[in-house]
Amino acid sequence: AGIGKCVAMDMARRNARTILACRSRERGQAAVEEIRAATGNPAVLLRLLDTASLASVRAFASALLREEPRLDVLVNNAGTTGLPFAITSEGLEQTFATNYLGPFLLTNLLLG
């Protein structure tokens, strides 16, 4: 939704292979279908990623590096605010993990 979806739409309009990394399979798949229909680009894909989970980030990065021959653009757009204080299963504060640690780890894992 929001800025991330707009960026993905623009990339797909430019005929780029576009991978949406989403936490929710249902919302992500709905966005994929909407972007494909609006752009005519069938190369819009969904991959699951929860940036609050460093294990999810590592699994996503590993699969992406294995499946994709190259990565030209990475847009880190995950973010949350206003959630009640919570600790992830990895012992991290959830908002900090989602907004900073997860995207930082993802970027570093994909740098190559």
Automatic annotation (TrEMBL):
Organism: Chaetops frenatus
Pfam families documented for this protein: adh_short (PF00106)
Keyword Oxidoreductase: yes
Record family assignment: Belongs to the short-chain dehydrogenases/reductases (SDR) family.
Keywords, alphabetical: Oxidoreductase
PANTHER family (UniProt xref): PHOSPHATIDYLINOSITOL-GLYCAN BIOSYNTHESIS CLASS F PROTEIN-RELATED, RETINOL DEHYDROGENASE 11-LIKE
Keyword Flavoprotein attributed: no
Molecular function as annotated in GO: oxidoreductase activity
Protein's recorded name: DHR13 reductase
InterPro entries per the UniProt record, alphabetical: NAD(P)-bd_dom_sf, SDR_fam
